[in-house]
Every structure is written in C-alpha cells, then in structure tokens.
Amino acid sequence: MTFPEADVILGGPVVAQLDAQGQISATLPATDSPHMDPSGWSYTVSEALSGIPTGRSYNVLLPADKPHVDLADIAPTDPSKANYIPVVGPEGPRGAQGASAYEVALATGFTGTPADWLASLVGPRGATGPRGPQGPAGAPGKDGAPGKDGAPGAVRTVNGHGEADVVLGAADVKALPVSAAGTPGGVAQLDDTGRVPAAQLPPASSGGAVQSVNNKTGAVQLTAADVGALDQAAADARYVQPSAVPVTSVAGKTGAVQLAAADVGALATTARGKAGGVAALDGSGDVPLAQLPPITYPNVWYPSDLGFVAWNADPAVMDGTTPNSGGGIGDRPAPGRIYYSSVVVRDTVTVSKICLHTYGYSGASGGITSGSYAGLYTATGTRLATTADLSAAGRYAEEHSVGGGTTYLSLTEPQTLAPGVYVLAFVLNWSTAANTPLVASIGQGMDASGKVGAISASRPPRFCMSSDKGNTALPSSVSWTGSAVTGICTRYWMALAA
C-alpha cells in the first residue's frame, strides 16, 4: 500500500504476539483512508493459537470513524459461515411492554389480589443475627424543662443591715430619695421635653466662685466629721453587725429578694436624661445643652412665634424702598443670579418650604420664566433639596395685598434637619421687568457685604450671591471661599417652614 501525500509504502503482514494477559494490540491504517492505493480493500485476520489445530481466518474493515476497535466485538462467531463486516444498524422499534411479576404469577397458577401476592413473598422471620458493633454517639438532646423553684431561703443581711425586718432607705443603696427630685438640695427634674424646667434654673445674674467649703479654703478635702457623719470604723462600732441578727425580709419581701429603685424610694438609673426623669451631667459636670429649655427673652420675637422654623433676620428689619425697584417697595432680583443666606436650626425638625416676602406679583407673562428655583444647602455647600421649576402656574403665588405677604415655595421632598447651620438659596429668571416679583430685602440690603467673620469651607457667609448671572438651575454644591460667590450682594429676607 502507498500513501503518495505522505511518501509512505507499507507491505507484508502485521504479527501481534499475545501478552501475559492473553491480549494483543496493533496500530493500523484505516481501510477507507483517502488517496490510498489500492482502495476498496480489507484486512485478513488469521489466528494461530498454540493447542488449536486450525485457527480462524476472516476479513474485517477498519473505517476511520471508529478509531478504536476490539477484535472480539467484530470477529465472526461461526468460522464455517461466510466472512462479514459488522455494521451498526438503525435502532429497532420499541417492543411491547412485558407482563408484571404479579401477572406472571397469575399466569402460572397464583390466585388472589396484588396485596395477597405481595404478602406471599414475605417468608418466615429468620433467626436473630449476632449483635452488631456499637454505633457512634448521637447528638446531645434538647435541654429539659426548668425545674421548679426551691423553697425560699432566709435572707441574712441586706446592705449591711441585720434586723429581722429590714427597711432600706435611698442612702442604703447609694441613691437619692424620690423626694429629692425638684427640691432644694436634691436633683433637677426634666420636663416632658427632656429639659430642666425654667423654675429650677438659677437666675441669670446669680453665681460666682466658691469662696470656702465648711469653713475650709484652698484644695478642700472633707472628712466624715466635717459633714456631721460617721466614718466606717465608727459606724461599725455603733451599729449592729450583720451576723448578729438574721434578716427575714427586705422592704416587705421575702425569699430570693430582688430590689428595684422604687422599692427603696430611689430613681432608676434609666431616668437620667429622660423626659420625666432627672438631668444628666456631661464630662464637665454641666447639664448638656440638649437638656436645657430654650432660652427666651421677653418682648423678643422668635421664628416659631410666626410659624417659621428659622429665618435669617427678624422680619421687622425688612426694608421698604430700594434703589433696584425704582423708588418703590421691594427689590427685583437680577435675572439668573443666585442669592444665598444662612439660617440657624436649633432643634431637630422637618421642613418642606423656603419662604420669601413678596410685596407684589401679578403672575403676568414674563414675570417668572423657566429656570427659576429655590433650594436648601448644608453648611459645607452640599445641596439637599430644591423646589420644582417656579415658572409653572401656582408655584410662585400671586401677591396683591397691601404690604405684601409671605411666599411659600415647596420643596420636592421634605427634609429632616439636625441642629446646625443651613443655607437657603433662590434664583429667578424673567423677561418682563414690570411683571417680576418684588421681593423684600433687609435694611436697605442692596450692595451690602455678607461675608462677615471667619468664612471657611464649612462656615458659610450670612449673605452672598453668585458672581455671574444667567443661571437656570441651583448647583449641586457651592464653595463659600471660591470665586463663584461674592459677598457684595442684595440681602434678601428668607426663612424655613415646616
């Protein structure tokens, strides 16, 4: 045989010797390899086994699509028949379903139901087998139910007292009596808001440095005798020792006694800093600011007195005539310029509106155009929320009253604010000056400086405005120390409302 493309010539038989397991193997060219000369041929297998006079001889084809062939699978079973080449045929049709075991039993003479037949398969019980090895230990079982309480034991002493019927006072458990709350020499109470009531605060003019303690000055160290008390040794000598008299009850209780603060006329530690409890002291020994009531002064108006949460100034300082309104009341904001003003929030509160005071606004065409907003910023200049575009009908209410009125501009989402400094902002765009809202400013506030004090990235100015005009949105963040804002501005009155 020749393979022209591979320059290979094969000839002669291939002899394979049986190995120690009686097996042979050989690698041969496929009988249908392309370009092989001759073609259309087959292999002749001749068996020559010791002890068998006449071995078999038969022809086989080795197609290339079956690279591994077991000779036992393709050798003819009867050497007297003509040689053949095994070919795998198509899968035959599915045969009929055979009878079940029960049906076979019926055919061979069994009578009865399927249950009877199944029962007949069970033979007699066999003899007990030998005991198997012990298995591994199982998982621990669940804990049993708690046992009943034992009989109460006798109390011998309570806080050093050994009388038959012990009655403890607040001092015995190093507590203050309930009667000490809100009384001279006691402790301050907290009202329903968690603050010390005004009646328990000292007058604003009182106070001063301590001059002496029990007639001692300097770095005073008091002893028990200085305050009319017994030291530990004297108290032990004067009073009955715990071992002398067994205690049979404590505050009217027997058995396994558990006392609470109320049992000894004391306040629980959980009452510290809680509404209806007592004031806590901070690390400096002072009542925290959050537990003090708001400090108010007579004849002074606060934002809450007029329904606001915070404002940048008392509205009593609003101006009347400003240069920018041509001699009339109110001021016409420059189109596209952003005006900022800081406010202080004293308590945690939820707000939903930015407020301006408008002296007049007809709502006529061109008075407010697209790109007009109000918004809320943190002290570091991060925007928290804005209104929707104020050019839509009804979002900036018309104002026709003499003296004007408060304009409430609703944020798209309410904001819950912690105590601190926040910045309010607004920008109005317009095309017709005569129809523009006239907004109240503070104390002839045009071209006044708002950058007073140590302004920083986290300490915004009281008032400022954007350096440029033409803005149609409020920026997502503002740098109070950068060139984007200027302190020479019109100081508009602004407020926050719930």
From TrEMBL:
Residues 121-152 are annotated as: Disordered. It comes from the Bacteria. Residues 123-152 have a biased composition (Low complexity). This is Collagen-like protein. It comes from Streptomyces chrestomyceticus. The lineage of its organism: Bacteria, Bacillati, Actinomycetota, Actinomycetes, Kitasatosporales.
